């Protein structure tokens, strides 16, 4: 019951903040131009700052665990490959990029640290999971959203060049790279910088959620209901069922296992919608999946934690 209440305390405010954006649009406080500008702002400033701060404050040398890093990277890679294969069954295929991204990309950074701190009193191995998975999440998101952009046509040199440019110039990837370099060089993180970056970072999730809510059209968001349900199932249940037994067999327990549970089965991050919208996709499918995974993740995450706790693993 404690796990359920904790997960509900994490996910319900997210869900309600998203609905606030929808409500504000319905009463005329938000219009399409404002929502689009807010989406762009979140993509360029707060989200990169959030990831920069999360990673820059990690002591990579102290936290480094090659086995954990390799496992998280490998499982994330396999999840992406499975998502790409599953997306081939979509007809029409205009939402392939959004389907792939939303089915593998978790709210790992924010939710992972929050849950592990609640269980163990510190961030534990969550930073290692973030280092191993979040950069890969974002690089592959740029790739799939570029390659499977609606109306793209065949993949040629122009598409590959644009994809590579998208990776190199993507604000979120730049934020991760800057944070990693900062941590590797062990640069000091002054209080003034920490507070300023923290204030900006805190706006990322609420503004992103309200922008998504303001863009939400329920008819469009669930017009591909079978695909939305399949994507939600893979995000919350499928990858967890496939890879959690492997993690246990590899000997991961305690905070390491909880980090892997969050990586595999937490809700699709709001960044899915923000990036899709900013890279030429409609974003309706992404918003629908974020809505569904956020709604149901409190129960599925609690189930996985309950199972592992019952087995004495966490």
UniProtKB/TrEMBL annotation:
Locate the transmembrane regions by residue number: 6-25, 68-90, 102-120, 126-148, 168-185, 257-276, 288-307
User: How would you describe this protein's topology in the membrane?
Assistant: Multi-pass membrane protein
Give the species: Blautia massiliensis
PANTHER family, sorted? AUXIN EFFLUX CARRIER FAMILY PROTEIN (PTHR36838)
UniProt KW keywords: Cell membrane, Membrane, Transmembrane, Transmembrane helix, Transport
Where does the source fall among the domains of life?
Bacteria
Report the InterPro entries cross-referenced here.
Answer: Mem_transp_PIN-like, Na+/solute_symporter_sf
Q: Where found?
A: Cell membrane
What is the official name of this protein in its record?
A: AEC family transporter
Q: Which family does it belong to?
A: Belongs to the auxin efflux carrier (TC 2.A.69) family.
């Amino acid at each position: 019951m404690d796990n359920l209440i904790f997960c509900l305390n994490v996910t319900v405010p997210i869900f309600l903040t998203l609905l606030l954006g929808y409500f504000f649009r319905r009463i005329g406080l938000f219009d399409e131009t404002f929502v689009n500008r807010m989406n762009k702002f979140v993509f360029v400033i707060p989200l990169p700052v959030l990831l920069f701060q999360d990673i820059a404050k990690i002591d990579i040398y102290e936290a480094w665990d090659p086995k954990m890093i390799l496992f998280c990277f490998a499982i994330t890679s396999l999840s992406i490959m499975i998502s790409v294969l599953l997306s081939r069954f979509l007809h029409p295929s205009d939402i392939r990029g959004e389907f792939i991204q939303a089915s593998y990309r978790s709210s790992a950074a924010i939710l992972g640290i929050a849950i592990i701190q609640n269980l163990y009193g510190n961030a534990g191995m969550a930073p290692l999971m973030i280092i191993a998975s979040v950069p890969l999440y974002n690089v592959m998101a740029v790739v799939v959203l570029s390659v499977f952009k609606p109306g793209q046509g065949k993949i040629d040199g122009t598409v590959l060049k644009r994809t590579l440019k998208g990776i190199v110039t993507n604000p979120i990837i730049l934020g991760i790279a800057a944070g990693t370099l900062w941590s590797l060089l062990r640069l000091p993180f002054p209080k003034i910088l920490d507070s300023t970056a923290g204030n900006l970072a805190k706006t990322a999730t609420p503004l992103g959620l309200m922008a998504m809510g303001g863009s939400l059209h329920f008819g469009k968001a669930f017009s591909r209901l079978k695909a939305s349900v399949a994507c939600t199932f893979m995000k919350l249940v499928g990858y967890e069922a496939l890879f959690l037994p492997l993690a246990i067999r590899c000997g991961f327990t305690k905070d390491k296992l909880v980090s892997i549970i969050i990586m595999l089965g937490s809700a699709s991050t709001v960044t899915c919608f923000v990036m899709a919208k900013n890279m030429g996709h409609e974003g309706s499918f992404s918003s629908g999946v974020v809505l569904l995974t956020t709604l149901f993740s409190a129960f599925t995450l609690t189930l996985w934690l309950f199972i592992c706790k019952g087995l004495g693993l966490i």
